[in-house]
Design a protein that fits this description.
Chorismate Mutase Domain, subunit A, 2 domains, 362 residues, binds phosphoenolpyruvate, binds manganese (II) ion, alpha/beta
């Protein structure tokens, strides 16, 4: 069921944007000069807000931890010079207080903070009675409830200009991205809270510049409302996240190639084509469900047979052989192996459950 939250649409935030809400700026504020130069270099592009980290939550001690409160005035000055609202990450109530004192226009809660409900609640309490946009990054672990919980805490404090930022998830087995996108999580978030604006942060997903355009394209296809892209005036010299920050020129090129997708069209060619294809999909899905039902009934039969003869439900060799054969067959049909593997893991798990439930008396 939908989660009902009192959230204002992006178009009612009082911050201009052209179709897509773009936030850009360096990972970290490093100096007044850096911020002023970055702001003036990127203000010519259609961006809605200038970002910079002031307090950096670093995983390990010893890396650059941000310039601290001193940077707030630099950021505000840089934004004012080019007429852009400015945005900072807050991780505790003291940060909120300092940002509000310096006239920072928007706040975001970082991935490491979203992970901790106590910290989020303290920030939410500090925001009570304040009308400022707050963007909530996903927690570092792929836990949708934790993300939703943080959004609810901030919303219950009275913040209605609220959005989610998808920045990917920590994963041991991920080789390509810095943080695994796990797209089904933001898709599910949109299904649960349909009126929540969603921003994609391709920089922290990718960890390197070459991968950005692919993730941005995907975000547009998944109907994200905006993007947060890290941009540095001289990326190799950046004090944090050097490999993933683009130059202002690269930012311009990425935005230039942006193709914003619409949710539907009245074009008769499209309407006819999609209606036909969708009805075919509906029929095929019905057949898939019928087949799954039959397959599970057989699992129950097998369960009974094994129970009678005192045979274990798990048959490692059979499972191994079956999976090998299915993957081979799937490959021959041009199906993605990882997809079929996941599918069969689910089917096998359900089959085991059905066998456990099998009743000898039926
Ligand atoms: C950042 O935006 O620079 C940052 C620290 O992000 P995250 O919380 O997603 O790691
Ligand atoms: Mn960063």
């Amino acid at each position: 069921m939908d989660i009902l939250l009192d959230i204002r649409e992006l178009s009612e935030w009082g911050i201009p944007y052209s179709g897509i809400f773009v936030i850009s700026g360096p990972c970290s504020a490093e100096s007044r000069k850096q911020l002023i130069e970055t702001a003036s270099a990127i203000a010519k592009y259609p961006i809605s807000a200038l970002r910079a980290g002031i307090w950096k939550p670093r995983t390990r001690p010893g890396s650059f931890e941000g310039v601290g409160a001193e940077g707030l005035a630099w950021l505000k000055e840089a934004g004012d010079r080019v007429g852009l609202p400015v945005m900072v990450e807050v991780a505790k109530p003291a940060h909120v207080e300092k940002c509000l004192g310096q006239g920072i226009d928007m706040l975001w809660i970082g991935a490491r903070t979203t992970t901790n409900p106590f910290a989020v609640q303290e920030i939410a309490d500090a925001l009570r009675g304040v009308d400022i946009p707050v963007l909530v990054k996903n927690p570092i672990s792929p836990d949708l409830s934790l993300w939703i919980g943080a959004i609810e805490r901030v919303n219950r404090a009275g913040i209605t200009r609220i959005a989610a930022i998808h920045r990917g998830f920590c994963s041991f087995n991920e080789k390509v991205y810095r943080n695994k996108p796990e797209w089904w999580i933001p898709i599910e978030l949109r299904r649960k809270i349909p009126n929540l604006p969603m921003i994609c942060d391709p920089s922290h997903i990718c960890g390197k510049v070459e991968l950005l355009s692919g993730i941005i394209r995907k975000a547009m296809d998944l109907l994200f409302d905006g993007l947060m892209i890290e941009c540095h005036i001289n990326p190799p010299a950046a004090l944090s996240d050097a490999e993933q920050q683009v130059t202002p020129d690269q930012l311009g090129a990425l935005l230039n190639h942006l193709i914003v997708k619409k949710i539907s069209s009245d074009d008769p060619h499209y309407v006819l084509g999609i209606t036909h294809l969708r009805s075919t999909i509906d029929e095929l899905d019905e057949q898939i469900l019928q087949l799954l039902m039959q397959r599970m009934m057989i699992s129950t039969e097998i369960g009974r047979l094994k129970k009678r003869s005192n045979i274990s439900i798990l048959q490692p060799e059979r499972w191994q052989k079956m999976l090998r054969e299915r993957l081979k067959s799937a490959k021959g049909k041009g199906l993605d192996e990882r997809f079929v593997l996941r599918l069969y893991q689910y089917i096998h798990e359900e089959s085991i459950r059905r066998q456990e439930l099998a009743d000898l008396n039926e």
